[in-house]
From TrEMBL:
<dbReference type="InterPro" id="IPR005545">
    <property type="entry name" value="YCII"/>
</dbReference>
<dbReference type="Pfam" id="PF03795">
    <property type="entry name" value="YCII"/>
</dbReference>
<feature type="domain" description="YCII-related">
    <location>
        <begin position="17"/>
        <end position="98"/>
    </location>
</feature>
<protein>
    <recommendedName>
        <fullName>YCII-related domain-containing protein</fullName>
    </recommendedName>
</protein>
<dbReference type="InterPro" id="IPR011008">
    <property type="entry name" value="Dimeric_a/b-barrel"/>
</dbReference>
<comment type="similarity">
    <text>Belongs to the YciI family.</text>
</comment>
Amino acid sequence: MPQYLIKFNDEWVPEHSAEEIRAKSRAATAVVDQMREAGVFVYSNGALDASTVVCSVESQDGEPIFTDGPFVETKEHLGGFCVIDVPDDDTARDWAGRLAVGLDWPQELHRFPASPFTDPTTTEGN
């Protein structure tokens, strides 16, 4: 089955009080629990923003060069994500929709391409 990334950018989320954030967390946890029960949950994490960036790294003459903050100037920062393993786009859309409704902020859905590191004749690792 293909894996999908459901994500949101921190900038898409309006300011919330601490209690509102706790309520959003409970709502997202409920959807993730449903994903676990359905056997489609792979991994998720949230509460990311510009303050959580550790560094950027690029290769220069075969050596890693580390710099503070994002590599490119951007106003968008990943806010959170969830990886699911479902049979098709429609099922992935359904789960992304559940998160969008539960959190009441936009989500973006991406399908991971087949991995070049696994044997395409098996479903292992996909």
